[in-house]
Amino acid sequence: MLSTPETPRTSGGSCALTPLKPGLAFHFDELTLLRGLNFTLTTEAGDLDLLGEIAGGGDFGMLGASCVELEVFGTRCLCLGLRKLID
Fold first, then answer.
1. Is the confidence at residue 80, as pLDDT, over 80?
2. CA dist 61 → 4, 42, 66 (Å)
3. What is the arithmetic mean of pLDDT over 20-31?
4. Dist CA 36 CA 72 (whole Å)
5. How far is the C-alpha of 17 from the C-alpha of 26, rounded, in Å?
6. In whole angstroms, what is the distance from residue 2 CA to residue 81 CA?
7. What CA–CA distance (Å, rounded) separates 6 from 25?
8. Distance (Å, rounded) from C-alpha 3 to C-alpha 28?
9. pTM to 2 decimals?
10. Is the CB of residue 54 less than 8 Å from the CB of residue 63?
11. CA nearest neighbour of 73 among 15, 33, 30
12. Is 11's pLDDT higher than 50?
């Protein structure tokens, strides 16, 4: 779950948007994720790309079968497999 003013972040981690323009105002919450498509985040663990669509590959509906399940910092995630990413 993402943090919002009503539901504060419960994890100890933090993340920030890497803006296209430094100083760009950005509010990272669930609504922003629902309205956006691709996000590049800088976290304490390193950079993280959240891609809703990949050029030439499609969206999750098209790529879901090529995903692999990984555990990332104790959370199970679906990630696009390297083979499909390279194709």
1. yes
2. 27, 26, 10
3. 72
4. 23
5. 7
6. 25
7. 20
8. 8
9. 0.57
10. yes
11. 15
12. no
